[in-house]
Every structure is written in C-alpha cells, then in structure tokens.
Amino acid sequence: MIEFRGSKTQPLIFDGAMGTYLKQISPSDLTIEEYNIEKPAIIEEIHRQYIEAGAQAIKTNTFGANPIQYDRNLCRTYLEAGAKIALKFQDRAEVYGSIGPMETPDLGDYLFVAEVLYQAGIRKFLWETFPEADRLLEIIDSFCQDHGDTLHITSFAVFPSGETRLGVLAQEALEAADKNPHVQAMGLNCISGPYHLVQLVKSLPTYQTPLGLMPNSGYPTMVDGRLQYKENPSYFSQALAQGLNYGLSYLGGCCGTDPSYILELSRHLKEVPGQAKSLKKEERVLKKTESNLKKKLKAGKQVMVVEYDPPQEATRDYFKKLSLLRQMEVDAVTLADCPIGRPRMDASLTSLILKKDYGLDSVVHMTCRDRNINAIKALLLGLSLEGIQDILLITGDPVPSVDREDVKAVFQFNSARLAAFVKNLNRDLENPFTISGALNINAPNFDSELVKAKRKIKSGVELFFTQPIMGKNAIVQLRRAQKELDVPILAGIMPLVSYRNAQYLHNQVSGMQVDQEVLDSFHEGLSREEGEEIGIGWALDFMNEIKDEVSGFYLITPFQRLQVIERLLKDYGQGKEK
C-alpha cells in the first residue's frame, strides 16, 4: 500500500479543472478524452502549466473515459494515452488516475477502467465526483484484492446543502470511506464553490482518514448558451485556505478553475505556513422529540391509523367529516400523496390543517415522483418545524400515460434512497421523523419483497404499512414478515363495498390480490348497505385473526366513506371487549 503524502500541516496541492479549462483555451467539437489522441500536446501543456503554478499532484485526463461513453477498444486507447501524457511529469508531480462515475450497474465497467490505467503505469487513483459511497467502496475493495500496491482517494460531489444528487449526505459518504482500509484519503469536489464546502467541513466530525477539498471556482452563469464561471482566483484561494483551520490535508480545484487559481492557492499557502489550527468544530446539542405514534409503538400498545385522502378540489367540505375521526379516537390520519399520479390537495398542507385546526396527528405520504431533492428537503424541514413527524415514504405511482406529455415525473431516487436521506437529515432535527415504508404482502414473489423490505430497514425505515389484506395468502405472508423483519408492522385493512369495487381491485390495481372466496361473496345487484355489510364482515374477520400478532392496523377508507371505517372500528372494539 502506498502512503498518502498530504497532511494537515503540509497539505498536498492538486491541479484544477481539465475539461472547462481545455474548452476555454482550445474550443472544438472533440470530446475531452479525444484530445488525448487528437491533440495530446494541449493536454501536456495544461499539465505543465498546473505544475509550474504550484501543483504537487496532477490528474490524468481520463475522468470521462469509460466503456459506457466509448467502445471498449477506443476507451482503452483514451485511457492509455491519458496516462502516458500525465506520467511524463511523474518526476515533477504525483500522478493520479482520474475515474468518474458511470451510469452502469456493472462494477466490471469500473474495474476495466482502473485495470487499464494500472497497466499503463498508474498506481494512485482519484475516484472523483461520486454520488454515493457503498458502491464505490465495493469497487475499490474488489480492485485492491489483486492490486494492493495502490493508493485511493474517494471524492464525493455535494450541493451547498450537503447532499449528493442521490440524496446521500456528505457525512454519511465520508463516514463510510473513513472506515474502509483501502481508502488513503477522501474528500469533496465539484458542484459547490470553496466557501460552501469549507462551511460544510466545519460541521463535519473529525475523521482518521485525511480529508480534502477540490471545489468549483464558484457558480456558473449561462452566457450565449454556454456555462461560464466568474474569474476570481484570489477569492478562491483565500476561501479554500480557510479549510486548513479544520484539518484539510489536500486542496485543489474543479470546474471553472485553471492554473491561475492553483498559482494563487500555492502562493497563499506559502504566506501562511502551518496554518492548520484544528479549530473546534461547531457542535449542536439537540433535545430530540418523538411523535405520539412512535411513543405508543415503543410502549407496545396497538395503534390505529386511518387513511383519508386529501380532496381533489380546494374545498373545506373535506374537513366536515373530521369530527368522525376525532370521535373514533384514531392515533393518526394517513394522507396519500396524489395517488395514481392524479393531483389532490397537498398532503403536507392538509396535515398542518388537521393538526392546527382539528388536533389530529397525521402520517404524511411522500413519493419520489413529483419532487427533486431540494423540494423534498425544503418540505421536510417545514414539516419538522411544525411538529409533523410521521411520514410514509413510497416510490409513487407513475404519471398516467395520457398525461406524460404535460406532466413529467422526477423519480430522482426510490423509497429506500429517500429513507436513507431522511435518516441522515434526522441527525440535525429537534423533531426527527419516524420513517415508515410500504410492504406488499400480496406480492407473488414475496422473497423479493422481503429483500426490498430489509434494504429499506437498513436505509432507515422504522415501521411498515402493508397493502390491504384481502385473503388468507396475505395473512400467511404477513406472518412471515413478522418473523423476518425486526420493526413494527401495521396491517392494511380496506373494506370492500361492492361487486365492482372487488372486481376492479383484484383485476386492475397492482399489489391487490382478493381471495376467490371474498370475490364470490359479492354479486351484482347488491344495495350500498348490503355491499358495505359484507365488506365490513370480511375486514373484521381479518382483523380478529391477526390482532394479537401485529402492532396495529392501517385502515384505508373506501371512496371517502368514513362511516364505513366508523362502523368497522365500533364492531372491532366490541369484539375486543367480549
């Protein structure tokens, strides 16, 4: 294993950007990697300029050279050429093989890139601009099995708010890298400017692994259809050097920087030698609260929540039936987030009205369909401040095909990733969230469903809401889930109310499976009262069969008929008293 040379008192100075600087001095239709073959002298000149400016380490021009972007043979050519050019300067500076993230599930694609660079003479690797740690560390571990004579720096790209594009917090990614024996240094790069990355470092704990920053020069603006960065090397160097007060062991630049930035940075560091003061990082002592629902679950008491979807129109009529919910003494009302991709009154705003005007707790459903990471975080911060702490995270139904030309889904991440994001956000919240997830007990491949559920638990899910029980098989799978999952489960119950209702759910709705015996109990021509009576009877049977096995029930209101849920709860309560 090669030792990392940077330290808190003698930080290693890296070069700056290759791509943005290259396009600035030599604009053409070539991709960045194609310059390695078509115009190698320009790449060589850029390396030279950075070294003369004070860079002690340079990166190969291979960030985007991968088998996803190029044919493998062509990719190999660009990688070998990039390594060859940079290694010409190995007597004057350390040479790091630059590897960027790829849109591929195949770890072999990453290993191919690393292997080609290794065979070309590279022994130090910078894995930069990555959005998560787990997969990256798996790649590095695999590579190091056969290449123990290598050095690895992992660098993650985060927004000023501290999250990657996948919602992974910088602290989470760095903590994972800090524990990995094959990582010799780690840091943050790209997306954010120096001030914001230094502010972020101030809030991080102290790590054993050397930490560094390679920020963008600042934030770009669009000029004549092209992104441009404002030139300010002096500000960049002064702002970045402040990071030495918080234990940084390497510094460099990313997008928008050029040799003038590295020159200013190296000059500034010479003027303030040994600047590392290890200032005490800011620590917040939070008095954490818990929701009423979580307290009751922890006390081992059975909970009862009722789903009552927000209205499709801006009307107060929806709230007229809330007196029924209060009379039922339910523990919370669950509010769906635009189910089946159709707009309804916002679930979060509805939850605030329920809390402030009616004294009712809510479980707010939150999908990944309609919001990006910024919108989700903004919403969560507001909910936490208002004491809305119970959330149900789901990936979300797709937008109906007829609307897709006008309504675009986001799906920046899935429910497991969103749970991990909220779990990390909880660290800094006085009113942290109780994170719930969905469990499909009607899934035909329940083994796969349990694997997903365990992944959700690892990501931070503390409670499961199941799909509605519509038969014996669902109960069998629920019991299996109770044995294999170590979190509370609320069993979903939705009374069927008519023949058409039963047939539609069984044949048209994903995740619903109605037993034939239940289907046969409904027939055309039933009155409304008769249909409700049959549905309530089945719901009671299911509840009574499992009442001693679950942590509570999740009652789904059919067609906003709260009187059906009221009757079900009344009959269930009477049954318990007997």
Walkthrough of the structure:
The protein is α/β, with parallel strands linked by helices and 578 residues long. The protein has two domains: 12-271, TIM Barrel (Alpha-Beta Barrel); 294-577, Alpha-Beta Barrel (TIM Barrel), CATH 3.20.20.220. The protein has 21 helices and 18 strands. The strands form three sheets. An eight-stranded parallel sheet has the order 1-10-7-6-5-4-3-2. Strand 6 (185-189), helix 8 (194-202) and strand 7 form a beta-alpha-beta unit. Helix 3 crosses helix 4 (72-87), helix 5 crosses helix 6 (134-144) and helix 9 (233-241) packs across helix 10 (259-271). The mean pLDDT is 90. It holds the Pfam family MTHFR. Pathway: One-carbon metabolism; tetrahydrofolate interconversion. It comes from Urinicoccus massiliensis.
Condensed summary:
Zn(2+) binds at residues 190, 254-255. Its cofactor is FAD; Zn(2+). By secondary structure, the protein is of the alpha/beta class.
Number of strands: 18
CATH architecture annotation name of the largest domain: Alpha-Beta Barrel
**How many whole angstroms does the radius of gyration measure?**
29 Å
Largest sheet: 8 strands, parallel
Which outline best applies? Answer: elongated
What is the average of the pLDDT values? 90
